[in-house]
């Protein structure tokens, strides 16, 4: 992706700010997202209220950001705005990511998340399995560090 439409960035950032708890420091800045989207092999999916691509005038309910190289792709971020959770948006967005990565030639998908992230059941239901752990990877302001868990899916 060579340039990023401002409305795409606006939609991603609105979800980012609503979805990520600041206590964990997982949210990216607008600059980080913009820079990532200009890098070769980086892909973005937006989701409306039904988990599909939002209409031009529709609200962005979620997004997925990934990076691929050769036959592997990593899900960098997947987020759904709290107003749209528990409605199948995340499940559909994850399905779309898997299908799109597979269409791009990926045979193995990865993601990493903090231990205790409630999205773990979503990933496991989609077939992702735990393949590693990084002890004390995520640092929190006042809280104890948390482990990162790596998941993989062969497709």
Reconstruct the topology from this structure.
Blueprint: H1 6-19, H2 30-37, E1 42-47, E2 62-69, E3 72-80, H3 89-103, E4 108-114, H4 120-125, E5 129-138, E6 146-154
Tags for this model:
alpha+beta, 155 residues, 6-stranded mixed sheet, 4 helices, globular
Question: If you had to describe this structure to a student in words, what would you say it looks like?
Answer:
This protein has helices spanning 6-19, 30-37, 89-103, 120-125, and strands at residues 42-47, 62-69, 72-80, 108-114, 129-138, 146-154. It has 155 residues and is α+β, with helices and mostly antiparallel strands. It has a 6-stranded mixed β-sheet, sandwiched between helices. Strand 2 and strand 3 (72-80) form a beta hairpin. The longest helix is centred in the middle third of the chain and has 15 residues, at 89-103. The chain is globular, with a radius of gyration of 15 Å. The mean pLDDT is 92.
Low-confidence stretches: none
Structural Rg: 15 Å
Which structural class matches the secondary elements? Answer: alpha+beta
Please tally the helical runs, counting DSSP H or I stretches of 4 or more residues.
4
- Could you say which overall geometry the principal axes of the C-alpha atoms support? globular
Biggest beta sheet attributes = 6 strands, mixed
